[in-house]
Design goal:
The structure is a single chain. With 141 residues, the chain is of the alpha/beta class. The protein has one domain: Rossmann fold, CATH 3.40.50. 51% of the residues lie in helices and 23% in strands. The chain contains six helices and five strands, in the order βααβααβαβαβ. Strands 3-2-1-4-5 form a five-stranded parallel beta sheet, sandwiched between helices. Strand 4, helix 6 and strand 5 form a beta-alpha-beta unit. About 6% of the residues have low confidence.
Amino acid sequence: MNLILVPLDTSEAAAEAIEPAMELADALDYSVLLVAIADVVVKNAMHPVMESEHINAEQALTSYLGQLAADVGGRGVEVQTMVIDSMDPAASIADTAEAKGAEMIVMSSHGRTGAARWLLGSTAERVIRHAKMPVHLIPVR
């Protein structure tokens, strides 16, 4: 299956990768898989409130991805969504791309702002190092 994986973190900066991925998918007759990572640390906490927080986060991510898919749908490109539980976003992105047979990963160079922005920049660098397929970074405007 010809697939482009697009990892997202709910930030506007990360979402800037969607349009270039859609254009590429349309030109190549590929489908797009929008992926978000749910923090498994919260899920594995031994407290019911933390488990509830994880469930709420997963539901919010599922809703977020569904809305994005609806927004870009109807353009002749199949769009799928997936929420992944992970403590290591970069490894999960690369592993999911490989497991799903993605031909490439298209992602923003940075996502969240502030201190988290540097972490996601680091995530992009780690994805590049670990992925077994091309990674196209979209610069943040």
